[in-house]
Amino acid sequence: MFEATAESRSPLGDWILRGGIAVLFILFGAEKFSSDPASHWVTLFRQIGAGQWFRYFTGIVEVLGGVLVLIPWTVTAGLALLAGAMAGAVAILVFVVGRPADSIFGGILCLGLAAFWLTRRNR
Asked: Is the full-model pTM beyond 0.70?
């Protein structure tokens, strides 16, 4: 009764959600390019221990995923890329950095991206 079918979904609502996802990840990805030693991202990636190249790589993945979500025929690839990045972030925060409480936001984003993909897959 309360399920939205593919026919009843609003294309405007789809664009709004995709736009929000894109803006969020483009902004988060762009933040990772700051080389300020006091930056949260520089500190976090130093704790991870993979080198600062990994911070730049992560920023590129997030910006690219955000852009792909905006292009109608690449939405699935963008959502998969972003969900994978968030799943990796959760795993790194829990198992490498040892701060599982910090992984809650990334986990929620990962689940939200997967849920959005599931609502779109029958289109």
From this structure: yes
Give the C-alpha separation, 51 to 95, whole Å: 17
The number of distinct structural domains making up the chain is: 1
Token pair listed for 32: 């990772």
Query: Residue 115 in contact with residue 102, Cβ under 8 Å?
Result: no
| Angle formed at CA 89 by CA 77 and CA 122, multiple of 5 degrees | 30
Is residue 48, in this structure, part of any structural domain at all? yes
**Which range marks the domain in which residue 106 is found?**
11-120
Q: Tokens 């991870």 identify what position?
A: 48
Helices (H) and strands (E) in the chain, counts: 5, 0
pLDDT digits 0-9 by tens, 20-79: 999 999 999 999 998 888 888 998 999 999 888 999 999 999 999 999 999 999 999 999
